[in-house]
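Q: What would this chain look like folded?
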Amino acid sequence: MATVVVALGGSLLRPEVEERHKWLEEMVGVVKNSVSSGVKLALVVGGGAPAREGIDLARPVIHDLSHLDRIGIAATRLNATIVREAIAVGGVKVSENIPKSIDEAVDELSDLPVVVMGGTVPGHTTDAVAIRLAVQLEADKCIIATNVAKVHSEDPRENPSAESFDMLTLDELQEIVGPPDHADAGSSKVVDPIGVGEARENALRLDVLDGRDPRRISASINGEDFEGTMVTP
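A: My prediction, written as structure tokens:
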């Protein structure tokens, strides 16, 4: 039985995403179809706007990075609960709890076809959580579903002429995102540099794609051609 981990960027749940309610419904359909075809799924949901708003509110008062991270983690668990409840209402067997650790998520997935979680501890983003979970589960791949079509040489929102890539190695991706360090609470890169470092150490394939179109996530889960960037060891 195939096991796939999907990191759903918190940006996918933001009000700015067109028809985000339809997106949530379509994601439930993706999960349902994947489970029906025998795939085990672990979804790790990011904090997005609630995380940034909470951190921005606290930043003038709280200067310690780990305390700011905890605010972001709380937001990821809120978003994970939204996704988890939608999947449950859709009739899919999914863990009742939002795991607070990777070990807990592994235990839940041993008995159920789907688990949904957010962040775990300060010091890294949910991308890194998803990659660590994929490593521990010996998953086929980790899908990074974000709000850009592919990995670019630079942030395409800042440089529209940045080069995009259909395929990269993990070493090349690390060069693009930077060294595996935790820079700042609430910051965002196409993939967390710490997570990329751990994927490199464990030779884990990453598929980076635009999660605003759930069909791309579905194609990646099913091992089909998808529009995005395949990152290989």
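The beta strands are 3-8, 40-45, 114-117, 141-146, 151-152, 164-165, 167-169, 206-210, 228-232.
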